[in-house]
C-alpha cells in the first residue's frame, strides 16, 4: 500500500541516523525521483504500474573504467644498433686469454646438451646437437676454403652473424671469417665435427628450428 511505502521513519530511528523527518508528500517525491533516475528508460506510467503489480529490482550501472594504455617499449632497429656500434669489440678486449673462461663454459654446455658426451654416444646424435647449438665460445678451425688465406685460422668464436664468424686467435687477432665457401672443424672431447659454412648461413637464433643434413659437400 502507498501508506506503507511512503511512511516516515520512527523518530528514534531518524535521530539515530541523524536524518530530518519527512512527511509523506516529501517521501513520495523522493521515491518518485529516485525511481526515475534508476529506470530512466521507463515512463511515469510504467513506473507506477511496476510499483502496483510487482517488486522492483533496482539496477546499478557502474561507470566503466578506462584501461590505461600500455606504453610500447621502443627497441633499437638493426641499423641503429650498427650505427651505435653495439657489436664492436674494443681493441683492449681483443685478447685470447680473456675468453678462455667462455670456452670452458661452452664445453660444459655441450656436455649437458649431449647427455654427458659418453664414449658410447652416437656420432650422428652429437653432430645434430652441435649443428643446432650456440657456438659462442667454441674453438673452430678453418680446414678448407676457396680463399687459401683462411685455411688454418683457429680461435674462439666471439660472435656469430648470419654470414660470418668473428674469431679471436691465440695471437690476439680478431678475424672476420665468412661462412660461405669455408669448411670449419670443431673438436669436442675427441669428437670432430665439420660445419659446411655455405649451408650454415643462418643466425644463431634460427638454427634451433632448422633441419640439417649430416652429410654435406662444398665446391672448392
From TrEMBL:
UniProt keyword Nucleus, yes or no: yes
Keywords associated with the record: Nucleus, Phosphoprotein, tRNA processing
Pfam families on file: RNase_P-MRP_p29 (PF01868)
Compartment list: Nucleus, Nucleolus
InterPro entries to which the protein is assigned, alphabetical: RNase_P/MRP_Rpp29-subunit, RNase_P/MRP_Rpp29_sf, Rof/RNase_P-like, Rpp29/RNP1
GO cellular component: nucleolus; ribonuclease MRP complex; ribonuclease P complex
One GO BP annotation of this record: tRNA 5'-leader removal
Database matches in SUPFAM superfamilies: Rof/RNase P subunit-like
Secretion signal span: none
GO molecular function, one term: ribonuclease P RNA binding
Family, per entry: Belongs to the eukaryotic/archaeal RNase P protein component 1 family.
Subunit description: Component of nuclear RNase P and RNase MRP ribonucleoproteins. RNase P consists of a catalytic RNA moiety and 10 different protein chains; POP1, POP4, POP5, POP7, RPP14, RPP21, RPP25, RPP30, RPP38 and RPP40. Within the RNase P complex, POP1, POP7 and RPP25 form the 'finger' subcomplex, POP5, RPP14, RPP40 and homodimeric RPP30 form the 'palm' subcomplex, and RPP21, POP4 and RPP38 form the 'wrist' subcomplex. All subunits of the RNase P complex interact with the catalytic RNA. Several subunits of RNase P are also part of the RNase MRP complex.
Function: Component of ribonuclease P, a ribonucleoprotein complex that generates mature tRNA molecules by cleaving their 5'-ends.
Name of this chain's protein: Ribonuclease P protein subunit p29
Amino acid at each position: 500500500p502507498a501508506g506503507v511505502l511512503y511512511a516516515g521513519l520512527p523518530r528514534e530511528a531518524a535521530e539515530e541516523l541523524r536524518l530530518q523527518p519527512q512527511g509523506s508528500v516529501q517521501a513520495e517525491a523522493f521515491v518518485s525521483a529516485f525511481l526515475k533516475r534508476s529506470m530512466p528508460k521507463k515512463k511515469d506510467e510504467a513506473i507506477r504500474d511496476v510499483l502496483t503489480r510487482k517488486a522492483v529490482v533496482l539496477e546499478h550501472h557502474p561507470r566503466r573504467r578506462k584501461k590505461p594504455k600500455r606504453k610500447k617499449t621502443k627497441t633499437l632497429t638493426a641499423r641503429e644498433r650498427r650505427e651505435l656500434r653495439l657489436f664492436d669489440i674494443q681493441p683492449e678486449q681483443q685478447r685470447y686469454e680473456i675468453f678462455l673462461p667462455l670456452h670452458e663454459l661452452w664445453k660444459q654446455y655441450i656436455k649437458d646438451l649431449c647427455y654427458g658426451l659418453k664414449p658410447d654416444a652416437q656420432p650422428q646424435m652429437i653432430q645434430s646437437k652441435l649443428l643446432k647449438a650456440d657456438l659462442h665460445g667454441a674453438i673452430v678451425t678453418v680446414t678448407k676454403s676457396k680463399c687459401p688465406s683462411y685455411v688454418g685460422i683457429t680461435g674462439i668464436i666471439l660472435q656469430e652473424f648470419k654470414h660470418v664468424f668473428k674469431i679471436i686467435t691465440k695471437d690476439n687477432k680478431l678475424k672476420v671469417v665468412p661462412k660461405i665457401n669455408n669448411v670449419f672443424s670443431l673438436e669436442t672431447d675427441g669428437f670432430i665435427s665439420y660445419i659446411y659454412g655455405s649451408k650454415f648461413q643462418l643466425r644463431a637464433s634460427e638454427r634451433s628450428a632448422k633441419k640439417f643434413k649430416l652429410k654435406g659437400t662444398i665446391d672448392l
